[in-house]
């Protein structure tokens, strides 16, 4: 049965399900770190880069990173590690998820990295044509890394684009949109390396993903285990705590065991201490851009209905 709108001169309120969520306007990286904190963060980033370089040197590496060496100090000495490190397992897991997801979805051409500024994925992975790569990381480290990568001839795949958003930016959402990010298109997000100092930092990240990621998009990443244990007090409640936190931001999360990743790759379990939690999460709700698109469509239909009603009168 076709329903005709009743003519009225009063504007109708927008349905609550078409209201966009509040934006997060706090920087997700504290640019005012003291010297000790800044030094510690840079050392952690270098340590992760060194692990990826060591993995590249292994006889049977999980992945090969031909560019990571240029980001390390010239005088650094490396021994070939025999055992797998969990950071490298996570890197391989995320690499595979990115590539397979894009192979399954021809329209997936937006990747957002939340990194420490030393992620070489934009250069070393084979991205499909027209892929736009957004890197959110500390500006100083990213700039230094880009300079070194360019000096060794690293290039973004042809007809792809790498855009940087400093993690010190006060409004990450607006910065991404200004660079062309589109919340009405599918996207993949990666959280690996960006400093998560407090629970509030991580909640800000989830809020950004929740607001910008189109429904059905995914985020893969690592979360410091000490943060979860501080909040829960025990590892046994980690899953429940993660579920609650992600659901509150419209995301469905799955904790991925590092040992399971190793088994899937036909490798022995890693013997290194686990200081992070590997996860994969799916966006279950509509992005702010989707909501705005439908709000405008709803308003257009309402206005056309009002005009039809007046014509009948």
TrEMBL record:
Keywords, alphabetical: Methyltransferase, Transferase
GO molecular function, one term: methyltransferase activity
Top-rank taxon, per record: Eukaryota
Listed GO biological process terms: methylation
PANTHER family, sorted: S-ADENOSYL-L-METHIONINE-DEPENDENT METHYLTRANSFERASE YKTD-RELATED, S-ADENOSYL-L-METHIONINE-DEPENDENT METHYLTRANSFERASES SUPERFAMILY PROTEIN
Name the UniProt record assigns to this protein: O-methyltransferase 1, chloroplastic-like isoform X2
């Amino acid at each position: 049965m076709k329903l005709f709108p009743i003519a009225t001169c009063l504007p109708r309120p927008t349905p609550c399900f078409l209201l966009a969520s509040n934006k997060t306007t706090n920087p997700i990286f504290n640019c005012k770190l003291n010297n000790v904190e800044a030094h510690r963060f840079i050392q952690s980033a270098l340590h992760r880069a060194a692990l990826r370089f060591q993995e590249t040197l292994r006889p049977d590496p999980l992945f090969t990173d031909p560019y990571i060496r240029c980001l390390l100090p010239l005088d650094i000495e490396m021994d070939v590690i025999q055992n797998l490190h969990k950071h490298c397992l996570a890197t391989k897991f995320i690499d595979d998820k990115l590539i397979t997801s894009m192979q399954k979805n021809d329209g997936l051409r937006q990747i957002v990295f939340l990194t420490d500024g030393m992620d070489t994925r934009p250069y070393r992975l084979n991205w499909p044509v027209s892929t736009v790569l957004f890197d959110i990381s500390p500006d100083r480290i990213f700039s230094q890394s880009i300079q070194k990568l360019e000096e060794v001839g690293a290039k973004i795949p042809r007809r792809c684009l790498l855009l940087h958003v400093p993690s010190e930016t006060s409004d990450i959402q607006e910065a991404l949109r200004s660079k062309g990010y589109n919340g009405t298109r599918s996207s993949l997000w990666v959280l690996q390396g960006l400093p998560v100092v407090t629970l509030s930092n991580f909640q800000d990240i989830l809020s950004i993903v929740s607001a910008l990621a189109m429904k059905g998009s995914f985020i893969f990443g690592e979360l410091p285990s000490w943060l979860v244990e501080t909040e829960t007090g025990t590892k046994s409640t980690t899953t429940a705590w993660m579920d609650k936190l992600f659901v509150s931001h419209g995301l469905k999360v799955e904790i991925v065991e590092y040992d399971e990743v190793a088994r899937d790759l036909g490798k022995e379990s890693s013997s290194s201490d686990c200081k992070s939690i590997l996860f994969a999460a799916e966006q279950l709700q509509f992005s702010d851009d989707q909501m705005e698109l439908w709000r405008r469509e709803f308003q257009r239909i309402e206005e056309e209905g009002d005009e039809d009603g007046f014509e009948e009168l």
